């Protein structure tokens, strides 16, 4: 993977995570994309799982009330 491809992936991760998962997700995604250890599809799958986890946490909090 070239440096240019890595930079492109980092930018994709920043753009997507700025909208979806906030600071923690941005930091994690930047680390993965710089190392070249995660593909675009794996990245977007991870965002989906993160959203599901957040929704489950919200639902559990509502049930406890």
Describe this structure in words.
The protein is an all-alpha fold. It has one domain (3-64). Helix content is 88%, strand content 0%. The chain has three helices and no strands. α1 (3-20) runs antiparallel to α2. The longest helix is centred in the last third of the chain and has 25 residues, at 40-64. The radius of gyration is 14 Å and the shape is elongated. The chain starts with a helix and ends with a helix. It comes from marine sediment metagenome. This is Antitoxin VbhA domain-containing protein.
List keywords for this structure.
single chain; 65 residues; mainly alpha; 88% helix; elongated
Chart the SSEs and their pairings:
Blueprint: H1 3-20, H2 22-35, H3 40-64
Helix pairs in contact: 1-2, 1-3
Strand element count: 0
What general form does the structure show?
A: elongated
Alpha-carbon distance between the two ends: 50 Å
Instruction: List unreliable stretches of 5+ residues.
Output: none
Radius of gyration: 14 Å
Mean pLDDT, as a whole number? Answer: 70
Percent strand equals under 5%
> SSE order in H/E notation?
HHH
Residues in helices, as a percent range: over 70%
Helix-strand makeup class: mainly alpha
Q: List the total number of helices.
A: 3
Major sheet attributes? none
Number of domains: 1
Protein name: Antitoxin VbhA domain-containing protein
Task: Give a nutshell description of this structure.
It comes from marine sediment metagenome. The protein contains 3 helices and no strands.
